[in-house]
Amino acid sequence: MTPATNDTPDATDKKPGDSYVQSFARGLAVVKAFNATRPAQTLSEVAQASGLTRAGARRILLTLEALGYVRSEGRLFRLTPRILDLGFSYLTSMPLWNLAEPFMEALVQQVQESSSASVLDGDDIVYVLRVPVRKVMSINLSIGSRLPAWCTSMGRVMLSALSDDELDAILRRADLRQHTGRTVTDIDTLRARILDVRAKGWALVDQELEEGLISIAAPIRNRGGQVIAAMNVSGQANRTSAAEMEAKFLAPLQQAAQKISQMVVV
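Structure for IclR family transcriptional regulator, as requested:
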């Protein structure tokens, strides 16, 4: 990405008029410039990744360093563990996930496969809880990890709860790339599958995101019946086929999701 000459975020970003705090948005852009493939970066690299000028990126990096969220090592900058405080602020403000963890642990013990919970954020799912039993993905998933909603079981559960207009908007702007030979990239076929999830109340994705990975998901609802999150059971195709996963894991998964839904207070 070429640094913006006016030191502003992407012009396509949604800015709610005078209430938009541009400096705060720039700070978030700098934080998000760091990831697993770019854990340590020079000032120029941060500026390029965040779309800011070098001067703007430098001011923000020095501010974050003064606050303890960034540290410098020669020419390189990297995030510090204190940045986790920002994510945990969300998790601690949602006590549901503390209450949900024992149910997910019990589910994992019962099915002997990993289980995760996520919420929908824009076009992606964001992991908020994960109880692994063994490594099933080459992707390193942890709390805060993001995956495209359209090709994941939890994502399709949450997309199925949207209105038709909202669903269509997400599918139109999604990057429908071919992750595996099984990935559904035709928008009409994909929409039909999501509508099928809406009718059934659960989703199964068979090796569309990663070869060998099968995942089945069910919704977590609030007291009004609205889908607020989803949870899944994921396994490997060489151990459990899609049909076996539905036969063995769907009922206990739905029971666990129902118990967690009953813990939602609003």
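The mean pLDDT is 87.
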